[in-house]
Write a structure and sequence with these properties.
- The chain is 67% helix and 2% strand.
- By secondary structure, it is an all-alpha fold.
- It has one domain.
- It is globular, with a radius of gyration of 20 Å.
């Protein structure tokens, strides 16, 4: 909104020339989202506490300590992330850019699915919300629509293709099979973040790290000079997603202020599903779907631990882990929650560095 309003005055006021730079607007998006979070956070949390007398329902089969430490904590804190993220993006991004709208609408759509899931849990006072089939079905439809829009907007040479890291010009053309492939990435990323959100601060910091990495990737991919130098695929217009990622970093940092142990609010599915979907959609647009699996490797590990646990129990009747997702396994081993969270953050940083290294190793 600010870009089309103020940049035309650059000839009269030199300061407004700054608005043509994605880096300046991305910095503005970070600060704006952070300030919105700090200002609205206490009021939103107070309102959620009034509406949720018992807080988020806690799994009765989860770690015993959760029933004591986390009972009564309100959920749906993802609203704070979505408000800060959306407002900041609308203020600082170029709203004529189609990619910005695709990511914004996909993020909001998954946030709406998460809201219905959280709402049903609260009204039924149960940790079970919307049925898994219904939720996955809605996610697939929304993700497929996003991928169709991406394929329509992306230049012909890159549309419906999958890029492979470590190789300069290797592209696999999937035709319209790209839609289910891209939908799998978006839905998988969304639910992987959702599974990781089980301890105070555990999911939001790796999400913030991934958003920061994809801000860097989107900027490089959208810049012809840098893309050619690094021999990565140039996607015209993708650089504007740097602003969105900046807003996500600011919103995540602001939410962490209230989600740090002991958490004053949980993000709930409203936040986790939307954050994961945003990261997945950006990876599809920037042609870095496989790199997302590295940068977001912590989310992948958490999701795989659940898949392995369920498959093992159904086939053999035995459990591989004491409890899934993986962070609960370490809780059952006696690790304190802060130790698990901080060590998982360290893993997230290591994987993020490894993912960024693929930009140069070609």
């Amino acid at each position: 909104m600010l870009y089309p309003l103020l940049y035309p005055f650059a000839d009269q006021f030199q300061f407004f020339n700054l608005f043509r730079y994605i880096t300046f607007r991305s910095g503005g998006a970070v600060v704006t989202a952070l300030l919105i979070s700090f200002v609205l956070g206490p009021h939103l949390i107070l309102w959620l506490r009034r509406k949720q007398s018992n807080g988020q329902p806690i799994r009765p089969d989860g770690p015993n300590g959760h029933l004591l430490r986390k009972k009564g904590t309100p959920t749906m804190g993802g609203f704070l992330i979505l408000i800060a993220l959306t407002t900041s993006t609308l203020l600082w991004a170029d709203l004529t850019n189609s990619y910005v709208w695709i990511v914004l609408l996909t993020t909001a759509g998954f946030g709406l699915i998460g809201f219905f899931d959280d709402y049903r849990k609260l009204t039924r006072n149960s940790h079970r919300g919307v049925s898994g089939r219904t939720k996955i079905g809605l996610e697939i439809v929304l993700a497929a629509a996003a991928c169709i829009a991406i394929a329509y907007v992306t230049p012909a040479g890159l549309a419906n293709t999958l890029a492979v890291p470590f190789f300069k010009n290797l592209l696999f053309a999937f035709g319209w099979f790209f839609v289910p492939l891209g939908a799998f990435v978006i839905v998988g990323a969304s639910n992987a973040v959702n599974l990781t959100d089980g301890l105070d601060g555990l999911a939001i910091v790796p999400s913030m790290i991934a958003a920061g990495c994809f801000a860097f990737i989107a900027y490089l991919v959208g810049n012809l000079v840098f893309a050619n130098y690094l021999q990565i695929h140039h996607v015209v217009g993708a650089g504007e997603l740097t602003v969105f990622c900046g807003a996500m970093v600011g919103a995540s940092l602001g939410f962490l202020w209230f989600n740090a142990p002991p958490a004053a609010v949980f993000m709930g599915d409203t936040g986790s599903l939307s954050i994961g979907a945003a990261l997945g959609t950006i990876s599809v647009i920037t042609k870095h779907e496989l790199v997302l699996a590295i940068i977001g490797g912590l989310f992948v590990l958490e999701a795989v631990s659940v898949i392995v646990q369920v498959a093992s129990y159904k086939m053999t009747g035995r459990r591989v882990f004491r409890m899934a997702p993986l962070h609960h396994h370490f809780e059952q081993m006696g690790w304190e929650e802060p130790k698990i969270v901080i060590r998982f953050w360290i893993i997230a940083w290591i994987l993020a560095i490894a993912g960024l290294a693929t930009l140069k190793l070609r």
